[in-house]
Amino acid sequence: MEVATMLMRTDPFGDPFRDLDRLTRAVLGTPAQPVVMPMDAWRDGDEFFVEFDLPGIDPDSLDLDVERNVVTVKASRPELDPGRSMIAAERTRGVFSRQLFLGENLDTEAIRADYRDGVLRLVVPVAEQAKPRKIEITRAEHERQAINA
Asked: What angle do CA 129, 45, 38 make, to 5 degrees?
């Protein structure tokens, strides 16, 4: 079964709807496997903001790494006490992570992060070299001579 699944995923003539379904499940989740770290991202001026919903996560379990232009967020939620008689257990337990691939125009050296009310917020500034800048226009020397004559 594993071999057949691998072949279907790499088959260039495979069903495009199967690939779309797989992508949709990976991004949006399903009732049986919800997305572990839903996020919002937006730009405001010269900064990008990313917020991850991580309710019930101990801040000490959060780990944020940047390697090149890839930001990896890791978190963990402890396993439930095996002695509990659970009626429902829908929240993801254990260690989970999510990666963001950032563009070259962002300053990964200056990322800021804070965790409040179950939301991890990253602030990623636009790199100085990517910001628009004014270029001074000077007059050519021959134009100045013509103007002064």
From this structure: 105
Rounded-to-integer distance, Cα 113 and Cα 66, Å: 12
Strand order in the sheet with 63-67: 63-67, 70-77, 94-101
Each residue of 113-135: pLDDT tens digit?
999 999 999 999 988 765 667 78
- CA neighbor of 40 nearest in space, from 121, 126, 104, 114: 121
Residue written as tokens 């013509």?
146
- C-beta of residue 9 within 8 angstroms of C-beta of residue 22: yes
Q: What is the Cα–Cα distance from 36 to 24, expressed in whole angstroms?
A: 14
Give the model confidence (pLDDT) of 74-94 as tens digits.
999 888 888 888 888 878 888
* Contact present, 76 and 96 (Cβ < 8 Å): yes
